[in-house]
## 1
Amino acid sequence: MSDDETPDKPGFSRRTFLRGSAGGAALTGLITLSGKAHAAKTPPVVGPSAVPIKLDVNGAVREVKIEPRTTLVSALRDQLKLTGTKVGCDRGACGACTVHLDGVPALACTTLAIEVGERKVTTIEGLAKGDTLHPVQQAFVEHDAMQCGFCTPGMVMSCAALLAQTPKPDRVEIRQAVSGNLCRCGTYPKVFTAVMAASGQPAEGWTLETRGVGDGKAPPTGTAWVGIAGGSVTPEPRTVPPGEAAPWPTSVGLSVVGKPATRLDGRAKVTGAAKYTSDIQLPKMLHGKRVVSPHAHALVKRVDTAKAERLAGVKAVFVVKVQEGATLVDPSTEQNGKFPRIRYAGQCVAAVAATTPEIADAAARLIEVDYEVLPAAIGLTAARAPNAPLVYPGPVNLGGSAGGGGAAKGLPQRANVRGPTEQVNGNVEEALAKAPIKVTGEFATQVQTHSAMETHGIVADWGPAGLTVYVSTQGTATVRDELATVFGLPKTKVRVVCEHMGGGFGAKFGAGHFGVVAVELSRRAKAPVRLMLDRREEHTSVGNRPSTVQDITIGANADGSLAALDLVSHGSSGIATGAGVGWAAMRMYPAPAQRTRQHDVFMHTGPGAAFRAPGMPQGVFALEQLIEELAERLKIDSLDLRDRLDVDKPGGVAAEADRIARKLERRIGADRIGWKTRGAPGAGKGPIKYGIGVAQSMWRRIVDMNSACEVRLHRDGSVQLRSSVMDIGTGTRTALAMVVAEDLGLSPADISVEIGDTRWPIGPASGGSKTLVGITPAVRQATHEVKQKLLAAAAHKLGVATTDVRVERGKLSAAGKSLAWKQACAALPTEEVAAIASRPADWNGPKADGYGGVQFAQVQVDTETGVVRVLKVVAVQECGRLINPLAVQSQINGGIIHGISYALFEDRVVDRATGRVLNANLDQYKVLGARDTPFIDIVLLDQYVGLTNTDAHGIGEPANVATAAAIANAVYHAIGVRIRELPMTPRTVLAALGRTGKVVRS
Ligand code: FES
Ligand code: FES
């Protein structure tokens, strides 16, 4: 567990260095009270003054005034407004800022603008020729080689440079070309495919098969289809309220839904036109900078902001007064003086707003803070030790965010351990005592940071008419509600906009502490303030997947049936709660006796947050390894064991379907990975071993009724859809257009989708794989309502009954007569017809339990070096009615790549002495890159539970749940030694081999 370890050295930012600081402004001194705009009497000047230079950019010579320390990316973005070039790390580690210098890829964040000289700069905005996209851009759109799109400009530039030099690159050359471009969404397989296509070559190895079901006919009246591809669908009774859209046929009978569609915003993303929060530039906008504590546990004794306030260009200074983290049940148990107590290194103490980022940085460094440093509890073991320094002096409570996390109120708390949260069925002790077979183990998982390519950020604009914020968020409405509450504003006076965002993975649901700080700075400065966290702040202060230690025991009978399952977990979300992992243990394999006891352990580290399938990758890592151990003890194939264990769960509509689905998925996956060719664990000869492993997953079906939209149909035939739901990169924008297009006989591109703005009807936050479950029934309902008006207008025009009119592709027909789409719309009684619909409730019928899938991993383990490579992953997944297979494939690729990265590489490292995160960057915190991307083979099964008018589900979570466990089981199969700890680094693997004496020498 790396939070208990100390590696070599912390990193520093080239940009910070260029600005004249060797340590990172984020860890300098802190604040004093102020609140006014400041006029300096004798303003100090920072740095040499700006000088004019010429840059040849995209074929035009442009003059800019820059300071010698100005980087090329700053000159491009801030002065020339070419914001397609992104900043992901600011230190040459991510490739988001890739441009061409004389046709050669270069990192604009580590190139000084003044160094460019006469070289020709090409940015993403200069790649297309007029309306004609570069072949790489075109291929990226056609093959969906993007998700959030934040890395896409840099990725496209690297690929375009490759093709200019090597017109027919092979796979190795493509991987090499983009090896410096990180994509946290895991789009690499589609990037490889797109580059092969752009170079006129077939791409193999990253495949998708979709399997439909049914005959394409509408279900009989009063029923909806229930079933799954590979089996059959049957009509189940459903009561559809009057006026609601009737159930669709299975997708075999649909024209748009279920068929691959390119993204509506694909062109914007590949040309750099898509605007992210960091691209927003408002008139008179200021730049914010936080001052954070370098100490993990301290009392703030003095904050002096006088020098910062005197700096020319500083417009507001703010000292934080509200304590971050959980709330003490009895606040009198802690005396902190004038300032909040510091509970982790990276906690915000103060902030400034200034006219340039450089001045804001300088001002932050001028703030003086005196600390009384206190001992800190760092590491799961140390925090649980007797006499460990206390994070909280007494019991606390902390609610979850919109994205999960948090824990129940009023749990017991002893020192730094809170809980347990306990779930019990039956008498576990007795059942375990009687069970003839028992398997047990302790499993440990590390802290994983979200590491979205776009850091958290906000542009806050407090004005007389209200507050407008542009924010990188997963939930526009959740941010609005939070800011309205904090600042005492009516919701109507808070507008939240998120047109595009560069990844969130669960950490971006609320306004966050930094967001509140930015709004406060804007309020004080009376000007818009942009506050983007830097990469260090991103790693330390805005969320992570908690660490865990899990003790799990399974009791079984001789026939393999389960007698009992018992889990005790301890995990740490730092100063927050929400480290539970018990859902998998309680729900995946029912047993007569089951118990989970989950504890949060407080540490002096940054708060955890919801992270893609919260708790599940950790829980399944332990559970699915133990299931494999049980199969080995029983001497039966583990797939056969799972067939026995997947019994019907009582009371769920999908209960039987789940059982059938898992069995089917296991068989499909087993065939594709070559399961039957497996030898005994560790039986391979030589030092390089190969293994195959399996794990299965489940995820719950979450319905967010805060899901509404407006559909407008105009007389000219144009169609608008509006909702505050945003597109996190999953393709929500396109999926919603597909739903509208399906029922109106149009193409998705015919629908103008305006989302990500709280001016429109409320949409669900994007997270928990709940977006499409929530919003698509509302979209279909609003479409249905405007369609009825259109049908009536067409019927009137055609002289037939409304019920006789049919919508077909691009026309409306009845009785052998038809109207083209635009003719029909021209017959509308008013210039536009519109409908606002909220999500209809689920139809009658049993509750859907959830949905799942199976993943198989094939690995190679070098027993001399301990290096594990994942060669191939097969994923077989059901995900409700498939809306857009192209986007679903992208998400599953991304979930698997996240899972591999978690299994093998990612590990937050905290210095036990200081509590500082030592790898708070993207070079020492390793995330999976192009070279580590395996082949991925996906099979998607259409599934119907008949509970809504779309039957859509989400897929972001389930795609990520099983991967680490499947890899762990494959590693065991390869080497015959179980790795019970993540990440499975060479050191971990070698240590495990060493303990068992299974090291093989060549
Ligand atoms: S922003 Fe330049 S490499 Fe990351
Ligand atoms: S698409 Fe690459 S980071 Fe999101």
## 2
Amino acid sequence: MRGYVDCLHKKNSLMVFTLDKVVPWGRSFDEYVSMFSLSDTDLNKYILGCGDGPASFNAELTRKGGNIVSIDPIYQFTADEIKEQIEVTYDLVIEQTRTNHDEFVWKHIKTVENLGRIRINAMNQFLEDYPNSEARYVAAELPTLPFDNSRFGIALCSHFLFLYSEQFSSEFHIQSIKELCRVASEVRIFPLLELGARKSRCLSKVIEQLNAAGHECIVEKVAYEFQKGGNEMLCVKASNNYI
Ligand SMILES: C[S@@+](CC[C@H](N)C(=O)[O-])C[C@H]1O[C@@H](n2cnc3c(N)ncnc32)[C@H](O)[C@@H]1O
């Protein structure tokens, strides 16, 4: 899915974020539950969704009575601006998925058209919820988060860390996950593949450095698999030394 690469503009360590380069693409509540093996106990915790973009997890969980804050650099833009960008890029993403059909497992999502419907439904729920929910959608970006220590029970990061291992260094990943461990007791990241459906080139170094910093890393199999071989999450139990 090469097209997703274009959504991120990196300039030294400073991110220059322009919406015309973003390819907004959001997953649903059910997908988050399955990607992160979320139990009812997990869903009752105070959750940080990191890089949630136009996913509907925040909107749907809130409707179910959950407690969540999402962060993403795209939240500096208005709902109309994000909607326009979804409309501009939607056909391109669907076309690329068709071209790279063999990189995916068409089991739960059966066809490209079915995928399009699921994603549009998720993004529409986000667009409805977003305008009047400023406290739940915070414009921020890793590797720095605007939250106090241990604020969240669990932090989730779907399809950002590890997926863009070609664009973001191991150091960026280590710094970002340490920051997530500072604000949450537990961090879960999915998938552990980078674009092209290969295991992330950063993964082993990241795990080694996080273990050395006192955090406990476990790679766990999950029920979700859409990118072929993408059925594992990294679960990090944070040490409370904030190193
Ligand atoms: C492929 S999308 C995934 C969206 C959502 N998590 C999902 O799974 O449906 C990647 C998201 O990462 C966000 N992102 C880019 N740079 C980021 C950063 N430095 N910190 C946090 N999120 C970032 C993008 O804006 C985009 O919304």
